[in-house]
Amino acid sequence: MLPFALLLGAMATAPMFAPGWWLRHYAKVALGLGAVTAGYYFLILHDWPSLGAAAHEYVSFLALVGSLFVVSGGIHIGVKGEATPLKNAVFLLIGALAANVLGTTGAAMLLLRPWIQLNKSRLAAHHIVFFIFIIANVGGCLTPIGDPPLFLGYLQGVPFWWVAKNCWPMWLLGIGLLLGIFYCVDRKHFLRAPRPMHAQETASENWTLAGLPNLFFLAVILGAVFVEKPPFLREGLMFAAAMGSYFTTQKSVHAANDFNFHPMQEVAILFAGIFATMMPALAWLDHHAAALLGQNPSPGVFFWGTGGLSSALDNAPTYLGFLSALQGVTGSENIPGLLGSHAPHLLAISVASVFFGAATYIGNGPNFMVKAIAEQNGVKMPSFLAFILKFSLPCLLPMLITVWLLFFRAR
User: Fold this and answer.
1) What is the pLDDT of residues 166-219, one digit of tens each?
2) Rounded to whole angstroms, how far apart are CA atoms 64 and 221?
3) What is the pLDDT of residues 7-16, one digit of tens each?
4) 150-154, 340-344, 363-367, 394-398: which has the highest mean pLDDT?
5) How many domains does the chain have?
6) E-assigned strand segments in 105-246
7) How far, in Å, CA of 229 to CA of 226, rounded?
8) Which of 112, 138, 249, 264 has the fewest CB atoms within 10 Å, i.e. is most exposed?
């Protein structure tokens, strides 16, 4: 697991202490460390099934994130007016609802550029961070389409509407608290901004929507999510939708979005290293989670266990690891066996994997892409470690503790 620890350490510290070096060499670091782990699995362990599974998960991840990136880059939403704290809060709430229909990745890629445009007069890091918190993560907790861990649960047998029926109180509390914190932070920033910046609405600005044919390609991608067989048909459909979108979108729309492939390239390289190096960590979790949890663990143990690892590992495989551990602890061979007296434990796993995915840039697929696009638009984003210290701990953690106290501690 040393390469995984080294990669996380490099991502956390290098952009802060050696940003120029990291910009030039991050690909060598990520791919080099990934090659060490992959080589160990291939040459020493001869564990080709694990390598194949990791490669398939990476291709699926890249197909979904990449196709949504391309298609959303072909849709331009023009916004009107000044970005008041109240208007921003309403925008984030709408985005949180949309995440349950488009998925957190789809909603984030579609709404990020309008969000940046809306706040162009006073765009700051907290605008992007709370966008990650609410739209790219917590918002997608109501349907299996919303976030990858919940979709994996659906494929394992969790009923489609079980998520909405059981997660809505946590979703409502989590979104409400985050919007309240954001409003306070944004209002303070709004009042400190120079007065001329508050009056950005002009006669030439209007709400506009360009690139509507891409909604068809977006529908193809969302439909492909539910295709399971034959292998790689789902990824092929997503790739075809991305190609169709890219070559049919007018150049003026791409220009209006400042569209290019640099953010996607950065995400593809870093997550290639992450998917490769985290294989031993996930294998260790599979073999030891049940022993660590004990004989009769409370839902709170699953909440913090799933959440803590979802922030360091990708939240989708972490969800599967703790779901497997729950089945081992309870002796349930299938998902229906968990929906009775053990439903609170399954609920804790579901909520934690989605909510804690917002705690770091690598907790959920769209997080790092949102960061890359924001930096491309001139936003000075916090480093990996600064993101945790300046935003996750003071803003996200209080919400997580409140959810735990009200819903999982006493059960």
Assistant:
1) 999 999 999 999 999 999 999 999 998 875 554 544 434 567 889 999 999 999
2) 8
3) 988 988 888 8
4) 394-398
5) 1
6) 208-210
7) 9
8) 264
CA 188 to centroid of chain Cα atoms: 27
Name which of 10-14, 48-52, 121-125 the model is least confident about.
10-14
CB 357 within 8 A of CB 315: yes
The alpha carbon of residue 219 and the mean position of all alpha carbons in its chain are separated, in whole angstroms, by 20
- Token pair recorded at residue 36: 């060490």
Write out the residue range of the structural domain in which residue 224 sits.
2-407
Residue 77's DSSP bridge partners are: 209
The one-letter amino acid at 227: V
State the first-to-last Cα distance of the chain, in angstroms, to the nearest integer.
Answer: 34
Q: Which residue has the tokens 């590992």?
A: 313
Nearby residues of 129 by Cβ (< 8 Å), 6 or more positions away:
382, 387, 391, 395
d(CA 311, CA 268): 19
pLDDT at 196: 53
Token digits of residue 381: 């984003």
- Supply 355's token pair: 């909510």
SS (H, E, C) 265-316: HHHHHHHHHHHHHCHHHHHHHHHHHHHHHCCCCCHHHHHHHHHHHHHHCCHH
Query: What are the residues facing 86 on neighbouring strands?
Result: none
Please choose, from the candidates 253, 332, 314, the residue with its C-alpha nearest in 3D space to the C-alpha of residue 71: 253
* Phi, psi (deg, nearest 5) at residue 306: -60, -45
The tokens for 18 are 């050696």
Report the alpha-carbon distance of residue 393 to residue 390 in Å, rounded. 7
pLDDT of residue 105 exceeding 80: yes
Residue 75, helix vs strand vs coil? coil
